[in-house]
Design brief:
This protein has 2 helices and 8 strands; from the N terminus they run E-E-H-E-E-E-E-E-E-H. The longest helix is centred in the C-terminal third of the chain and has 12 residues. The radius of gyration is 13 Å and the shape is globular. A hairpin with a 3-residue loop joins strand 3 and strand 4. The chain is of the alpha+beta class and 110 residues long. It starts with a strand and ends with a helix. The chain has a 6-stranded antiparallel barrel. The protein is 16% helix and 47% strand.
Length: 110
């Protein structure tokens, strides 16, 4: 079953550990099988959803560069949800405490 507004399965929504905010920026990603630029759909200190037509299978590891204000957050992420041709849900791996705080502060002010 999908959430018609977001086209994301309901169980994906239930697995989120943090609230997500809508934030649309271009995110640069680099992985073993794909490199590119994608737009975000939503973002939290735990992960991000990217709108992309790139084929990124569940379990794929990516390096992300996320422009955030005057800074850029660089973090590894794992694909935890894949909707081929539409987008992927990523969980951050090893996000620094400083970057997590930056995300949380920026998302609160949205």
């Amino acid at each position: 079953m999908t959430d018609e507004l977001n086209d994301v399965p309901s169980k994906w929504e239930e697995r989120r550990g943090q609230d997500r905010s809508r934030l649309i920026v271009e995110v640069f990603f680099d992985g073993k099988d794909a490199t590119g630029v994608a737009s975000t759909r939503d973002l939290s200190a735990g992960g991000i959803y990217l709108n992309t037509q790139a084929e990124l299978p569940q379990g794929a590891l990516l390096l992300l560069r996320i422009p955030f204000g005057q800074r850029q957050i660089v973090v590894n992420a794992e694909v935890v949800y894949s909707n081929p041709g539409r987008g992927v849900g990523l969980q951050f791996l090893g996000l620094s405490a400083a970057d997590a705080a930056l995300l949380e502060a920026g998302l609160i002010s949205e």
